[in-house]
Amino acid sequence: MSIFELAGISFEYESGRKALDSVDLVVPEGEALSVLGTNGSGKSTLLYILQGLITPSAGTLKVFGDTAFTADKKTRIGIMFQNSQAQLFSLTVLDELMFGPLQHGLGVKEARSRAGDIMELLGITGLANRSPWQLSGGEMKKVALGTCLSTNPDIYLLDEPTSGLDPRSQVELVELVIRLKESGKTIITATHDLHIIQDISERAIIIGEDHRMLAAGASNEIVRMQDVLLKANLIHEHAHKHEGYRHRHSHFGIHEHPADEEEPGQGDMPVPGQKISKQEGKPGMSNLEERLKILLEHWQEHNAEHAKTYLEWAEKAQAAGKAELAATLREIAQESGRLEELFRKAEKQL
After folding, report:
1. Cα–Cα distances in Å, from 145 out to 78, 151, 158, 165, 173?
2. For residues 168 and 56, what is the distance between their CA atoms, to the nearest angstrom?
3. Does pTM surpass 0.90?
4. Which domains can be identified in the chain, with CATH numbers?
C-alpha cells in the first residue's frame, strides 16, 4: 500500500518564489526515505505538504490512497520540525509529552504513564519537571521527537533531526530512528547530512537548488552519485567517496555512549508548590512561578522572531487560498508589540 503518491507537486509563494517544482514521488507503507537537499531547496516544504500543513500550488497528492486529506489521516502523521522551539510550548517536559495523548482522548493517568515510557526510552526521565527552554539543543531535539512518539503515529516526518547536535546525541537519535524503522514505521527524513542516510533509510531522493528532483534510488547508490551531489551542492568539489561505507557507528566514530552526568537534583521530581533554593530561582518562588518566569522571559526574547514567523505563515496561507486565515495571522503579527508589553507586565506581577 502507498502512503503518499505525489504527481507534479509544486509550491509557490504569493510573491511568485518557488519552493518545489514538479515533484513526483511514491512512498510505500513501511519505507524509510531520506530527502536530500541544501537549505532552501524545498525539503521542509515537502514535509509540510505531506503533513497537510500547506496545500500544493499544483499537482496531485494522494494520502492513504485518495486525495481527501481528512483530520483522521493527519493524526496518523507526526512531524518533528527543524527548529525544536517552534514545536515546544508547555511549562515542563512532562506537560509537552502528555499534551498529545490528552488531545487524543487518553485519561490523565494513561497519558502520564505513556509520557514516562517515552522519557525512559529517550533517556530524559530526569528532565520531566524542567522547562523546555532550560534544555540543551540535543535535549530539546529529544523532547520534540518525544512529542511525535507520544501519539504513536504510523508516519514520522523528521526535518533535519541531527542538525546542531553533538556527535553522541547524533548517534543516539540515529539509533532511535533505526529502531522506529525496524518496527515498521514509515519514516521520511529531510537532511543534508550524507553520513546518516544509509543508516536511517533504504531509499533517498535528491532535491536540487532549482527545487526539482534530481535523482532517486537506493541510499547506498545515492551517496556515490558525485556528479548529482555536486550539482545539488551537497558535497564539495574535492569530496571523496567512502567505499565500504555502511556499518553501524562508522559515520560518527563513536562506539560507546557514556551516561550523561546529572545535574544535582536533576532526577528528583519536585513536589507541586515546593520552595526552591536561591541557586534555582528567587527565594520563596514556587516551582510554578519559576517556570512561568522562564516562559515569560522566553516569549519576550523570541517575540520578534515569532512575529516574523506569523507573517511567513500568513504568506503560505494566502498562497493556499486561505485569505481569511492569512489576514488573521497578519493581525497577530501586528499585535506583537502589545504582547511585549503584556509579557513585561505579567513578569512584574510574579
Report:
1. 9, 11, 8, 14, 9
2. 37
3. no
4. 2-258+270-279 (3.40.50.300), 280-350 (no CATH)
